[in-house]
Amino acid sequence: MADPPVRCGAMNTEVTDGKTRIAVVTGAGSGIGRAVAVELLRAGWSVALAGRRTGPLEETAAAADAGGGEALAVRTDVSQPADVAVLFAATVERFGRVDLLFNNAGTFGPGGVPVEDLPYEAWRHVVDTNLNGAFLCAQAAYRQMKEQRPQGGRIINNGSISAHAPRPHSVAYTATKHALTGLTKSLSLDGRPYRIAVGQIDIGNAATDMTQRMQAGVLQADGEIAAEPVMDVADVARTVRHMAELPLEANVQFATVLATTMPYVGRG
């Protein structure tokens, strides 16, 4: 069961005036999720921060500095339907609506494991987090956005370069990111009658704890080990904010943001 939500940051008393925008960011305790949450908070959004541990969520809120939007930390395991229900109920209770879901929570799983050696439990964990979790959060956001007034909102799914081309020994992660593209397309189509815009950002080598190994050297498609360049995660956050702040009549369906010289186009 999810812990009670924790309010953090500046108090915003006019949360239903049509001016304050409300976001839910999953995986907000670190990496890309933290960077996006901080970017939105500093821009005046109020943000429900979702993650497995409350401590890192509170650190994210503190990183946004005082004077921005209000943060609400909600301990959430996105693979658990009950946790997701608590997350969105807490968000609506505090802020009155949901204008944006950044569906970011994910895991790479055990890296470097050949497909024949990948335990089923590891496969299932990646699928439960990356795909089932994204579906559960999108479904909850969709239900809220359809019924709220004014109607509508935006969902941005965090895909990956792996939604286009795999790395060696990444079958679970790659399969879920390809599936996420299908989820994005279906949600985008089904959301049209209700002013729900859905897009996807595919990211390559943003500098986070998850990508530290890239700079040390990772396995390439030709069997070689090579260091790869990374980019500032703040550049990703600004891209997400741009997508989020478009009017609902406009949508970035797919965006690819990557370190300019990483081995992706032509894979080397």
Automatic annotation (TrEMBL):
InterPro entries: KR_dom, NAD(P)-bd_dom_sf, Sc_DH/Rdtase_CS, SDR_fam. The keyword Oxidoreductase applies. Keywords: Oxidoreductase. Residues 21-204 form the Ketoreductase domain. PANTHER family: 5-KETO-D-GLUCONATE 5-REDUCTASE (PTHR43669), BLR5618 PROTEIN (PTHR43669:SF12). This is SDR family oxidoreductase. It comes from Streptomyces virens. It comes from the Bacteria. Belongs to the short-chain dehydrogenases/reductases (SDR) family. The keyword Hydrolase does not apply.
